[in-house]
Amino acid sequence: MTLALRLAAKGRKTTSPNPMVGAVVVSQGRIVGQGFHFRPGLPHAEILALRRAGSRARGATLYVTLEPCSHRNKRTPPCVPDVIRSGVRRVVIAMNDPNPSVKGRGAAAIRRAGLSVTVGVARREAEGLNKAYSYWIKTKRPYVICKAGMTLDGQIATASGAAKWITGKQSRQEVHRLRSCVDAVLVGIGTVLADDAALTARVGLRLNKLASRQPLRIVVDSALRIPMNAAILSNQQRARTVVAATDSASASRKRALLRRGIEVLTFPNVRGKVSLPALMGELGRRGVTSLLVEGGGEINAAMLKAKLVQHVRLYMAPVLLGGVDAKGLIGGKSPARLTSAFRLRNVTTRSVGGDLLVEGDL
């Protein structure tokens, strides 16, 4: 199963909105077939593994990281019939598919055909691999990661907005790798106006080349204040940008963006702001399973207070900035009581170059 999980992870940048799945066929202690799901519309992992095993699959054991599918309302045929026809004697499944169209049905159908089925081997590892997919399936919203580079005293920029660079090169390289793995990145208009960041995923020692996979770039801009020459509006052929505005935003500004090929999504005006729950719902409907928030303090605060963040990832540099007017990680008003603080679970720490990465779940 460990090998199947490693194979599954090879689809990290290509399978969304489908889950990452790996499969291995073992006969008499030897691996006779293996595969992983690469892209929606292409064969699933167990089908590839069984094809490679061929007649050697008869009497063998199939290890698969996710329950084989049994439903038909999708681009590829169900996998269960092929698993049964292959002649394997036993199927070992890491986790059930949380998709209501499959959940438990695939394993049950295989059992009814007389095969031995074991579920739950390396479940925790499999669930960790597909936590974004599982969250999206269950909630119809993307799994949200709030990421920031900050000083030890919690500042993400000086009073003037200067933030380049608080963290070191290795942290920035890791963030670019993370961008290339998520479906979308999101910032508020304040970050666009202050930093004019392109928010593309880049590779190379100098981070000067576009990665092969680019996330959808999303700007939350209630009044459509975004400059037409903003860096985040460039490279639309390689990295699309969507602007989320309120329904009271300027119609002429919207038309100007549309002429540039920029899609503008309009949402209800909630006290002058875009409804973030409505935005998350729309992204979920569009198949965005994972979202990286790289905004400033205000968008971080809004997302956290709306309970839309599932994971926090903080790169902390060994620097003290100080100053009551510096820009903090979370903007807005402080809660009156410590009991209202956002407390992380499953916290881990590790060094990234000269920085410290602290991350945890909410």
Description:
The protein has helices at residues 2-9, 45-53, 80-85, 105-112, 123-129, 131-139, 169-181, 189-195, 251-259, 276-285, 297-305, and strands spanning 22-27, 30-36, 61-64, 90-93, 116-119, 143-151, 155-157, 184-188, 202-203, 209-210, 216-220, 241-246, 263-267, 269-270, 273-274, 290-293, 311-317, 327-328, 345-352, 355-361. The radius of gyration is 23 Å and the shape is elongated. The mean pLDDT is 94. The protein has a 9-stranded mixed beta sheet. A 5-stranded mixed beta sheet has the order 2-1-3-4-5. It is an alpha/beta fold. It has 2 domains: 1-131, Cytidine Deaminase, domain 2; 140-361, Dihydrofolate Reductase, subunit A (3-Layer(aba) Sandwich).
List the helices and strands and how they pair.
Elements: H1 2-9, E1 22-27, E2 30-36, H2 45-53, E3 61-64, H3 80-85, E4 90-93, H4 105-112, E5 116-119, H5 123-129, H6 131-139, E6 143-151, E7 155-157, H7 169-181, E8 184-188, H8 189-195, E9 202-203, E10 209-210, E11 216-220, E12 241-246, H9 251-259, E13 263-267, E14 269-270, E15 273-274, H10 276-285, E16 290-293, H11 297-305, E17 311-317, E18 327-328, E19 345-352, E20 355-361
Task: Provide a concise account of the structure shown.
The chain has helices at residues 2-9, 45-53, 80-85, 105-112, 123-129, 131-139, 169-181, 189-195, 251-259, 276-285, 297-305, and strands spanning 22-27, 30-36, 61-64, 90-93, 116-119, 143-151, 155-157, 184-188, 202-203, 209-210, 216-220, 241-246, 263-267, 269-270, 273-274, 290-293, 311-317, 327-328, 345-352, 355-361. The chain is of the alpha/beta class and 362 residues long. It folds into two domains: 1-131, Cytidine Deaminase, domain 2 (3-Layer(aba) Sandwich), CATH 3.40.140; 140-361, Dihydrofolate Reductase, subunit A (3-Layer(aba) Sandwich), CATH 3.40.430.10.
